[in-house]
Write a structure and sequence with these properties.
The complex is a heterodimer of chains A (88) and B (589).
Chain A lengths: L2 H35 L1 H4 L3 E2 L2 E2 H31 L6
Antiparallel strand pairs in A: 1-2
Chain B lengths: L2 H22 L5 H6 L6 H12 L2 H14 L4 H25 L4 H8 L3 H34 L3 H51 L4 H4 L11 H11 L12 H17 L1 H4 L8 H37 L18 H6 L5 E3 L16 H11 L6 E3 L3 H9 L4 H39 L5 H24 L5 H25 L5 H23 L23 H19 L5 H10 L12
Antiparallel strand pairs in B: 1-2
Helix pairs in contact in B: 1-8, 1-17, 3-8, 3-13, 4-13, 4-16, 4-17, 5-11, 5-13, 6-7, 7-8, 7-17, 7-18, 7-19, 7-20, 8-13, 8-17, 8-18, 10-13, 11-19, 11-21, 13-16, 16-17, 17-18, 19-20, 19-21, 20-21
Classes of the chains: A mainly alpha (88), B mainly alpha (589).
Chain lengths: 88, 589
């Protein structure tokens, strides 16, 4: 690995870690936050026949996880290309 | 045509399909055997991963657990899906880039140590056997109830089918069979759910139905459910009996455990590229979410149906409870299995189903209604299987559910057997004991290991040691406290060295194992009763893997900081796996 490649590698890794932290923060907030720690507070809000905290614990968190992974995958593909470390 | 013939036909057709696929896609070399030649499209791989992941526990038990736990069941929903976010962002792409066949190979390579690899092999084999025994049990239950054959015959048939496509086809055969199994199981799960949702609410999607109003005009389903269950002394459905800290840690242990399960991780070695590993985790979760968002609706609807069937009128009035002689057909059919049991404690010939563990309610019920204890025992495992019968759905739906349950159990069992066989032939034999084994002998050893593992699994399924139920907590706890941290630190830190990783894995493993054995008594008698008052910080054995993981991280950092840094070539390798480019040249050597 040349010195320049090493520098690019570092910058790429930093960008990756930033994106990862954003994703994991959202991951934590919807499940542990809305679904567990704040569940009683959110249960005071109702939409349709659902209490909001209960809905996050049994439905909302799962939908968020799915969307989150695809956003991560798409953004990572962009970052890969930006730093020219993508495959083929 | 009667139900049994129909079930035979549908289950038989599904078996023929699986075996056909296995023959068409059998493995020719070790690459195809272990990781399907790394040529599986991410969507197909996602579907296969979903079938691999969703076991008999997801298909048969989970909705039943949720039905009785209400909000408390959320730990399984969040725990068994949230792990995929960790897989996609923290593990899968890097392990794919590393480009080997197995998890112990990564740990052995990254920590430049055969001992580290050996610790990983031991964890892996223990986790996988625990799991596979549960699957075989599931196969047995489905066979004995729906095909009315003896449980041994059921197990032998199940083992035979898995043997054919796991041993012949290896990962390649398993992957394509699992795609078919996913289709069977998701269809079987959602069709009855849609029917029941329509019957109860007029809404067609179960995910929406359980937040809708009931067609009988009694208001929102969940509100009515809260009312109905509290009237019988149970805790509100949308609240749970567990403490917040316990819910938090169980969810954590299940999420991290999911990301650390070897048979799940290995799925991401089968895709062609690093970027496919990321999107494949997303696809896997899409297919899993289809079932996991339906399950809580199935649970709520099942609880509602069950309570309404038994409590036909006002609580406490004589005619409010159904007469035993007028019980519905499905109850009669399940009684011989012993999973549904009625004992007429107060001798009135009617079924009383209520929470007799609630002292105030039980006292009031005894004094004012003449109830002498809960009279109906319903095993949680029958809720999904009995659901179509409870809702009076046509016979073909019931037959389909049987085929779906078998598909869920077989697909998971096959994935686990492959991981066990790879650990023995590739990691233990080739990696440690006989490094110069030829590819042909290795493939043969892999097939033999799979065959032996199937026999052991079948035996465990027929003759479950008393602790099979308890050890599920073990599998997740161990994966969370041993394998996950070691892999994660191997990617995200260059400083963690051999000494730190081995010490961390051992501390996590021994602490978690010790805590579970202390309260649950696997092999020995429990040393303390398994009640919240005795737990450390109020965390149950199910959630202790989360604490074990934290201890593993702490130990590894501490030990690594006072010992020598890893050699330069290992640090270079870590930099290498962080970058996607150059992932093509993947090999087992």
């Amino acid at each position: 690995m040349t010195e320049q490649e090493r520098e690019v590698g570092k910058a790429y890794w930093a960008a990756n870690l930033r994106l990862m932290m954003v994703c994991l923060t959202i991951w934590f907030v919807v499940s542990y936050g809305f679904g567990i720690l704040l569940v009683d507070v959110l249960n005071n809000i109702e939409f349709g026949g659902f209490k909001l905290g209960f809905w996050f614990a049994q439905q909302g968190s799962i939908y968020t996880f799915v969307i989150l992974i695809f956003i991560y995958a798409i953004q990572m593909n962009r970052i890969d290309r930006k730093f020219n470390v993508h495959e083929d | 045509m009667d139900l049994q013939t129909l079930t035979y036909i549908i289950v038989g057709l599904s078996f023929a399909l699986y075996i056909g696929i296995a023959i068409w896609s059998r493995a020719a070399n070790t690459g195809e055997f272990y990781v399907a030649g790394k040529g599986v499209h991410p969507i197909a791989n996602g579907m296969a991963t979903a079938a691999d992941w969703m076991s008999a526990a997801s298909f048969i038990s989970m909705a039943g657990l949720i039905a009785f736990l209400g909000y408390g069941g959320s730990v399984y929903l969040m725990g068994w899906t949230g792990g995929y976010v960790l897989l996609a962002t923290l593990l899968a792409p890097y392990l794919r880039k590393y480009g080997k066949f197995t998890v112990p190979q990564f740990i052995g390579g990254r920590y430049y140590s055969k001992s580290a690899s050996l610790v990983a092999i031991i964890c892996l084999i223990f986790i996988s056997f625990t799991y596979v025994a549960g699957q075989m049990r599931g196969v047995g239950i489905v066979f004995s109830r729906f095909l009315e054959v003896d449980i041994v015959t059921g197990l032998v048939v199940g083992m035979g089918v898995v043997f054919i496509y796991a041993v012949l086809g290896g990962m390649k055969g398993i992957t394509y069979t699992q795609v078919a199994q996913y289709c069977v199981l998701i269809f079987a799960y959602t069709v009855p759910a849609v029917f029941i949702a329509l019957q109860m609410t007029g809404e067609f999607m179960p995910q929406i139905a359980f937040g809708s109003t009931l067609t009988d005009g009694s208001g929102y389903m969940l509100e009515r459910l809260n009312q109905v269950v509290t009237d019988l002394g149970f805790i509100e459905y949308t609240k749970g009996p567990k403490s917040t800290i316990d819910v938090f840690f169980i969810t954590l242990a299940l999420m991290v455990g999911t990301a650390g399960l070897p048979h799940v991780i290995v799925r991401f070695f089968t895709v062609p590229k690093v970027r496919d590993a990321r999107s494949s985790a997303g696809w896997a979760l899409v297919f899993i979410a289809l079932l996991y968002t339906t399950a809580p609706a199935v649970g709520a609807m099942a609880r509602m149906n069950l309570t309404d069937t038994i409590q036909t009128g006002q609580v406490g009035t004589v005619t409010g409870n159904i007469e035993y002689s007028k019980r519905p057909e499905w109850m009669k059919r399940w009684e011989p299995t012993g999973l549904l049991k009625f004992t007429d404690k107060n001798g009135d010939g009617r079924i009383q189903y209520y929470n007799d563990k609630n002292p105030t309610f039980a006292k009031n019920a005894e004094e004012n209604y003449g109830w002498k204890g809960n009279e109906l025992k319903v095993d949680r495992d029958i809720m999904v299987l009995a659901n179509p019968e409870i809702a009076g759905l046509p016979d073909w739906v019931i037959a389909l559910v049987a085929a779906g349950g078998i598909a869920a159990a077989l697909s998971t069992a096959a994935g686990l057997l492959l991981v066990i066989s790879a650990a023995i032939s590739h990691d233990l034999l080739k990696g440690i004991l006989v490094p110069n084994i030829s590819e042909k002998s290795e493939l043969l050893a892999g097939r033999m290991a799979a065959a032996v593992a199937i026999c052991i699994a079948g035996y465990l399924g027929y003759n479950p040691p008393g602790f099979v139920a308890q050890v599920v907590a073990f599998a997740f706890g161990l994966a969370a406290s041993s394998l996950f941290p070691a892999i994660l630190m191997g990617i995200f830190s260059k400083r963690i060295n051999r000494e730190g990783a081995i010490a961390g894995m051992l501390v996590g493993l021994i602490f978690t194992m010790g805590y579970i054995i202390y309260f649950k008594g696997v092999f020995i008698e429990p040393m303390a009763s398994n009640v919240p008052a005795n737990w450390l910080f109020g965390i149950s054995p199910e959630g202790i893997g989360g604490v074990g993981m934290i201890l593993n991280f702490a130990t590894a950092f501490l030990i690594s900081s006072i010992t020598k840094a890893p050699p330069q070539e290992v640090q270079d390798m870590v930099e290498e796996i962080r970058i996607p480019r150059g992932s093509g040249a993947a090999t087992g050597h």
